[in-house]
Structure formats: C-alpha cells, structure tokens
Amino acid sequence: METRTVLSASDIDRAVTRIAHEILESNHGVSDLVILGIPTRGAVLAKRIVSVITRNENVEESQLLGQLDITMYRDDLALNPTRPVGVTHIPNDGIDDKVVVLVDDVLFSGRTIRAALDALNDFGRPKAVQLAVLVDRGHRELPIRADFVGKNLPTAREERIRVHLTESDEQNQVVIEG
Amino acid sequence: MKHLLSANDLTRENAIEILDTAIEMAGVNDREIKKLPTLRGKTVVNLFFEDSTRTRISFEVAAKRLSADVINFAAKGSSVSKGESLKDTAQTLEAMGADAVVIRHYASGAAHTLAHSGWVNGSVINAGDGTHEHPSQALLDAFTLRKAVNQDAAGAGLDGLSVAIVGDIAHSRVARSNLTLLKTLGAKVHLVAPATLLPKGLTDKADSYSYSLDETIDSVDLDAIMMLRVQSERMNASFFPSEREYARIWGLNQDRLARLGENTFIMHPGPMNRGLEIDARSADSRRSLILDQVANGVSIRMAIMYHLLAGGAE
C-alpha cells in the first residue's frame, strides 16, 4: 500500500497554533469560550489548542477545555460491533450561552459532527457552535462545514487519512494511504 | 456478547469494559437531561416471575435512559397465573418483537433455557434465576467496590482486595455470581456461613471458608464484607436453630463492626433483614456502601444493555 506524508510534525504544530489564534480572533478573546475535543485524537488536538490559548490569554485550562464522546450518539452503532465508550467531560460552568468550539482530527462525511451536535443538545443550549479540524478531506454527506481548518486535503473516497499524534501514536504526522 | 446469563460469561476484559462504560453512564445520570438516543427503536421486555423492587426498576430506568421501549411483564396478573408456560409466554413476547428479555425466575437455569431454546431471538439478560446466578448484581457490586477503593478506577480490576461473603450462601444467587466475578477481577474471596448453608462446590472455588464470622474478622484483613439476606422464603428445612441465634453468631453488629478495620466497606445486596444478618447501625454506618449499591444499579444496567444491544453483528 502506498503511503504519503501530507503533514509533518512542524506542519501540525503550525496548524494548531494558527487555529488557536483564529479561534481567539473570531471570538474576540476567551470570554464565554468552551473548547471540546472529540475523543480520541480530537481531544488531543483540543488540549494542544488550549495550551496555545492559555500561553497567550489570562485563562486556566480547566475553564476552557473539555471532551465530548459521541459513541452513544452515532447513527451507525447497529452496523458495527460494539464500540468502547470514551470519556465525556464538560467544564464546570457548562455550555449554556457559551460559544462551543468542537475539535476533531479529520472532517469527512460529517456524521461524527452531527452526532456531536446531538450530544451537545443534551448538555445545554450554547450561544453558538463552531468546528475546528486538522484535516478537511471532503466527501460530506451532511450539510456541515468547518470554521477553522488546518489543511484542506482533496482525497479519493477510498483513500484513508491517518492522523498520528505523539500523545496516542508516538509520532506527529498525517499520512494518506491508498 | 449476546446474552448475560452468568458471571462465568464475563472475561476480565469484558467485565472491566462494562465497569468503565458504567462510569460514563453514571455521568449521564448526573446530567439535567438524563437520556441517550443509543437504543432508540429497540424493545426491552422485563419478564419477572418473582418479586423484585430494585432490580426491576433499575432495569426499567436503564432501558428508558437509553431510549429503548420497555414492556413490563409481571407473572402475577398475567396468563401465567392461568397456567401458561415459560415457552408460551416467551413466544408471545417474541411475536411482539422483543430485542432483549430481562428475566427473573424462581427456577435456576430459566434464563439459560430461554436463551438456548430458540423461543426468542433477542438477547437474554439474567436478572436472577432461582438460587443460581444474578450477574448484573455482581457487576454493580464490583463497580461500587472499585469506586469506593479507587476513585480513578477506569481500566482497573479488584486485584489484591480481600472480600468476605457472609450468610445464607446456599440460597444466594448473589453469592454465586459475586464469587465468580470477584475472582475474575483478581480479588480474594472468603466465604463465611453456618455449615448447613455452605455448599461444598462453592468452598472449592473460594480462597478460604469458615463457619465462624468472628474467626474470619480476626484472622483476615478484609477490604469489604458482603452480608447476604437470609432467604426465609427459600428455606424449607431448619438450617439454623433460631433467628436470634443466627443474628448472634453470623450477624454484623456493633462489636464486630468495631473489630473490622477502619477501611473495611460494608455491602448488602438488599433487601435487608435489619436485626437479623445486619443491625441498623452497621447498615447505616459511614463505611456502608449499601445505598451506593442501589444508586449504581441504573448505571451498570445501562452499561450492560449498551454492550449487549447497541452493536451490530461481530
């Protein structure tokens, strides 16, 4: 199988830093901001984005960062073997009237984000929901788009995008297999 | 895993996965909107041939929190009292399209029969069969104990813990399931009962057994002590001379509570006979996990249903 690296470790770092600044810029700072990563790699990226933000703004990680597991909201549960359930953690102040930024590694069909929007519904009513992804590879099946994108990667449907992050995979890179 | 019939069905990995899922389910139960869409469109039948409060209600709440439709069937007031057999009852439920049947029955092996007879196609969850098994209770006991001992418990077993199971072991499906599951999760199990209520087959599986509660309390460093209900309704012979004598020799009282370590948790699957196997002060003491056991029932049963019903074919 042919494998091609499309983002190197430093590309990922730059993308994360840029996304963090774009989030701050478009929301005029950190007031009312909540950043929720979708496990597993979205949660890792959310933590990295928040660490850039806490370096620049007067805010604690615990006020800003959470994670949202969407396993039990998936629309394909019955089509696959049972999946393990991930951890959900919402910052103490909740999400009512906050701007929630969802973070995921790859945006593909949009179904994960649909499930995440359903899950958010059960936690409260955010003022707005935005989406940040490291890679947008196209092939949407739902009317969903990202507000902050690390890299747009046109792909063929049968290709696979693999995101490796040191926290879970020992190295930092994004590769295409296909 | 399609059915949950016995604690023997659970490998260590399965069991820990269910316990970990239950942590997340407990999070759902703390939310304002206590509902997940996970089992939407599935039908769960609660088939109860024997009285139950805690188990039936917690299975019902668990199924509803996962958005399943729930049909409650109690043998009293149904055609069972007209003499309908388990087979005919099961086939009626099958015709209604049950995806899962939660069954409690007075006959040991009823859940196994239902699962392997071909009468129903859905999953079968054993909610207590005679004096045989009650696996969901064992899972919730393990969950409660794991959380009490180690707050950040995800992924962990019960390795190295020492647990005594005390009382009417012969008639206790809770004791059988707990013995198996506690061993699977790495705990040491000590059985304590009057000789008349301690079957030989179980003593072989335990790490130790004794006919004296005092001896066990003095010789073993216990992390938890599980008191069992004296099941008078299943006793058709004299297993001990009198209730007063039972309470004096095998009951948990102030004196024994004081001799247990400060860190020994007290558990009881309920319903309690206060004053018989456990006195009120022990049941309500700071070290008692009895109310936590009840509270955790819904979370663990949500986790079980998630693992049995949410996924498609392997």
Structural description of this entry:
The complex is a heterodimer of chains A (178) and B (314). Chain A is an alpha/beta fold and 178 residues long. Chain A is built from five helices and eight strands, in the order βαβααββαβββαβ. The model of chain A has no long low-confidence stretch (mean pLDDT 95). Chain B is α/β, with parallel strands linked by helices and 314 residues long. Chain B has two domains: 7-134 and 295-310, Aspartate/ornithine carbamoyltransferase (Rossmann fold); 135-293, Rossmann fold. Helices cover 40% and strands 14% of the residues of chain B. Chain B is globular, with a radius of gyration of 19 Å. Classes of the chains: A alpha/beta (178), B alpha/beta (314). Chains A and B meet through loops of A and helix 1 and helix 12 of B.
